[in-house]
Amino acid sequence: MHRIGRLLGLLTVACALPAAVRLPALISDHMVLQQGMPVRIWGSADPGESVKVDFQGQSVTVKAAENGKWTAWLKPLVAAGPLEMNVNNIAIKDVLVGEVWLGSGQSNMEFRLQTAVNHDEEIARADYPMIHLFQVKHVVADQPADDVVGTWQVCSPASTKGFSAVEYFFGRHLQQNLHVPMGLIESDWGGTPAQSWTSKEAIASDPALKYVTDYWENVSADYPAAKEKYDTTTLPAWNKAVEEAKAAGTTPPNRPGAPQGPGHPNTPAGLYNGMIAPLVPYGIRGAIWYQGESNASEREAYKYRRLFGAMIEDWRNRWGQGDFPFLFVQLANFRSNAFWPVLRESQTETLRLANTGMAVIIDIGESRDIHPKNKQEVGLRLALAARALTYQQPVEYSGPMFQTAAPENGAIRVYLTHSDGMQARGGGAITGFEIAGADGNYVPAEVKVDGNTLVVTSAQVANPAAVRYAWADDPVCNLVNQVGLPASPFRSDQPRYQ
């Protein structure tokens, strides 16, 4: 009886204790909260449980709903830190308030600092306690997930070497110029197309994107046969080739990729569901994006302008913060296929959306490597766009951008923005321009700078009707403005969005 009474007493005490509040991965030690806007803190608990959030002089108490979920809103915060937040009996330590940016895309955003140019020196210098990093684990999901797997890390040589090089250099430059804490969230996956990062609802709501679902329906129908062939023929052949290579002392072939199908990262909305939707409650200043290679095909390159724009608007609608800044990288020069110029054009067309900016890197790619290692310059050019467009600092952030062109006395005059001090990088003649007459046959052209315009001519074209610049997958081109930023590729015989 004594033992039973003691057990009942312990149970009574346990029932009297408040139930544990559960927090998502983002709400944890070392997190960075966005300054200057209302901040949402959320989680789960027992239905009806009271949850109290104390932070930066604010105290907010809410009750968990019948499904156990709760949300507490903090009034706009002031840049500061390190601070402590208390959620009931949970102490969240080393909290910073500053600027929060999301970095996403495919392998060039995922490209690690430890493989960038000068990586040893850069890693050794990566000691910035006011920059915190959060890396989202790869997940494909059929439906929007509630949480991600990841932890906030203080920027240090150990934590930064495996982080996105582009996002790190972007954040470092901003932190050094804004002098406030910086939170960088990395959510990316190499080799993935934009439709994987776009919600099902956004894809379904636009008839122009029906090709996405049609294609995936065909992939899904073909998957059983493709998977059987992969398991019974492709993998055994690869295993045999590996054994033969080992016996011969040669390099074994890479494992062949599995066929697309259920659970594949290319699943439309699969990465949005698993790696973006759970981040939506977290306040951010904006997003940076480096992707497009996986959509640079005959089927998708031109349609990307519609898909990419839909994805941006989808994210903005989900976050509910208005047209937050969305900055992206145009594809670099690379020896690939004829549809890379079209994909770059689609990226440029996306600038019709409000509060977008594009970093042009047509001059720093590597012809035979789809992963150029100079990520410092990529991050810098994105940061310049953020400084100018988001933080209203008086810096030039873009190279010359095509505006319009008009025939003029046997030449064609090109009007551009961001065009002060146009010249050939390193001096000499400007290269990369071609003109065509009414027949549409383009030939190389000569270029003269006339103020903020260019006069383009060719002895082979008496009456030019169209002009284009850097219109190739791996073009030879050298036009820059007075601060050395490169001109974006363009063609005049397509509708333009300013």
Explain this structure.
- The protein has 498 residues and is of the alpha/beta class.
- Among the domains are: 194-390, Rossmann fold (3-Layer(aba) Sandwich), CATH 3.40.50; 401-491, no CATH class.
- Helices cover 28% and strands 25% of the residues.
- The chain has 11 helices and 23 strands.
- The chain has helices spanning 2-16, 107-110, 119-125, 157-160, 165-178, 200-204, 210-248, 270-276, 304-319, 340-349, 375-390; strands at residues 32-34, 39-44, 50-55, 58-63, 69-74, 80-87, 90-105, 128-135, 152-155, 182-188, 286-290, 326-329, 356-359, 401-408, 411-417, 423-424, 433-436, 442-444, 446-450, 453-457, 466-469, 479-480, 490-491.
- Strands 1, 3, 4, 6, 7, 8, 9, 10, 11, 12 and 13 form an 11-stranded mixed β-sheet that branches.
- Helix 5 packs across helix 11 (375-390) and helix 9 (304-319) runs parallel beside helix 10 (340-349).
